[in-house]
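User: Let's play a game. I give you a shape written as C-alpha cells, and you guess the letters that built it. Ready? Here's round one.
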C-alpha cells in the first residue's frame, strides 16, 4: 500500500500546480483588464475635453447645428467607452461576463451611427437604414428579455 500513498501525493502536487497556474492566469487577466480600463478612461477624458474645445472653436466659425452634431458624436463615443469600462469592472468583480452591458454598448453605437448618417446628409440605401433600425429593435428586445429573465429568476 505504500505505492498508493505516493500516487495520492503525486496527484495532490499536480492539482496544486494546476490551481496555482489557474490562479496566476486569473490574476494576470485581472491586471490586463485594469490596465485596459485605465487606458480607456484616459482616452475617453481626452476625447471629451478635445470635443468640448473643438465645439467652442467651431461655434464661432460655423453654425451651432454642425458644432452640436460633432460634439454629440464625440459624447456618444465617450459614452460607449465608459460603458465598455463598466463592463470590464463588472467582469472583474463577478469573474463572468454579463450580456446587458454589451447590448447597451451596441445600442449606443447603432444610435450614434444613425445620428451621424442622418445629420451629415449622407446618401444611404433604404436597406442599410432598415438594417440599422432593425438592430435597434433587436437590442431593445434583448434588453427587455434580459430584464424579464432576471426578474423571473429572482422570484
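Assistant: Ready! My guess for every position:
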Amino acid at each position: 500500500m505504500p505505492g498508493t500513498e505516493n500516487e495520492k501525493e503525486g496527484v495532490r502536487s499536480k492539482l496544486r500546480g494546476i490551481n496555482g497556474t489557474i490562479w496566476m492566469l486569473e490574476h494576470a487577466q485581472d491586471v490586463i483588464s485594469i490596465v485596459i480600463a485605465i487606458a480607456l478612461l484616459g482616452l475617453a477624458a481626452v476625447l471629451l475635453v478635445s470635443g468640448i474645445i473643438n465645439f467652442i472653436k467651431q461655434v464661432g466659425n460655423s453654425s451651432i447645428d454642425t458644432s452640436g452634431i460633432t460634439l454629440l458624436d464625440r459624447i456618444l463615443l465617450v459614452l460607449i467607452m465608459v460603458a465598455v469600462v463598466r463592463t470590464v469592472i463588472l467582469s472583474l468583480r463577478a469573474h463572468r461576463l454579463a450580456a446587458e452591458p454589451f447590448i447597451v454598448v451596441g445600442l449606443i453605437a447603432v444610435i450614434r451611427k444613425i445620428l451621424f448618417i442622418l445629420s451629415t446628409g449622407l446618401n444611404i440605401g433604404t436597406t442599410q437604414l432598415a438594417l440599422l433600425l432593425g438592430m435597434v429593435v433587436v437590442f431593445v428586445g434583448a434588453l427587455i428579455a434580459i430584464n424579464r429573465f432576471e426578474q423571473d429568476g429572482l422570484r
